[in-house]
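Below is a filled-in request sheet from our internal design queue. Each sheet records the structural input a requester submitted and the sequence that came back. We keep these sheets so that new team members can see what a complete request looks like end to end.

REQUESTER: design group, bay 2
PRIORITY: normal
MODE: inverse folding
CHAIN LENGTH: 115
BACKBONE (tokenized):
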């Protein structure tokens, strides 16, 4: 089954390396990145990526709805290593409203782990 990596790129660049490694080290049918215009201009993924551009200062419902309308129908794997709690909550709410099953992925000292 095709897998989509869904990741937030927050304004702090410190966690971008983690997202970049997930993109390059795993096989993804699609990479879907959530960020603002600044993140899109300054992050260079190693593979082709689709973007959901949000305004972090928008209301929760607007962010959630923007994410929800862009969610693909295949298997979704989420990383919440970057971004804010508001963005993370919007992702979880969008996935729940659309009734999408998902996995969580993180890189550890022992390798990539899925939950």
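RETURNED SEQUENCE:
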């Amino acid at each position: 089954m095709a897998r989509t990596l869904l990741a937030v790129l927050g304004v702090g660049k410190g966690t971008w390396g983690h997202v970049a490694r997930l993109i390059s080290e795993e096989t993804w049918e699609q990479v879907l990145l959530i960020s603002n215009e600044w993140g899109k201009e300054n992050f260079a993924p190693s593979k082709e990526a689709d973007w959901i551009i949000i305004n972090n200062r928008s209301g929760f419902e607007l962010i959630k709805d923007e994410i929800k309308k862009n969610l693909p129908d295949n298997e979704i794997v989420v990383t919440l290593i970057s971004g804010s709690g508001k963005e993370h909550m919007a992702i979880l709410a969008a996935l729940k409203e659309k009734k999408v099953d998902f996995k969580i992925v993180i890189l550890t000292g022992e390798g990539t782990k899925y939950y």
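SHEET NOTES:
- The domain at 3-114 is CATH 3.40.50.10770 (Rossmann fold).
- The helical segments are 16-25, 37-42, 60-69, 85-97.
FILED BY: M.R.
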